[in-house]
Queue: 2 jobs
Job 1
Amino acid sequence: METVLEVKGMTCGHCKSAVEGAAKEVAGVSEAAADIEQGIATITHDESVNIDDVKQSIEDQGYDVK
């Protein structure tokens, strides 16, 4: 499965890495790709993943996720 999240507050490469790393910490997430210019993160995951857990993990890094 693939889910696209709107992520506010990414401004640099470190932000991109932080968002991707936070998403990948959630069990069942196989890939995460953040796009700074578009303000999105594309999350590839299996069906068992609660996307709210992914959102919370990213928000814990200081970003606003829609």
Job 2
Amino acid sequence: MTTKQTIQTTVTDTNGRLQGAMDIQVEFSDFVPNIIIHDGKTFFATGKEGVNTKTGSAVIEAASDDDRARIWIARDASRIWED
């Protein structure tokens, strides 16, 4: 099942600084973020999954379409950590 949503998410930059709430577009596939549009870039899930050690959140890695930027996004898309 695939669904597209616009979600307000909390973003943390690569230096660990909170950037605040931002609107993102997310396409979920099987209840997991698959395609994310954030800060003008399109990111695609890489297949890597993990846990954010500071928050305990289950996260998914996503890479930009040009593979120059990566983010980690919570499985519910409530938070993004730029990498």
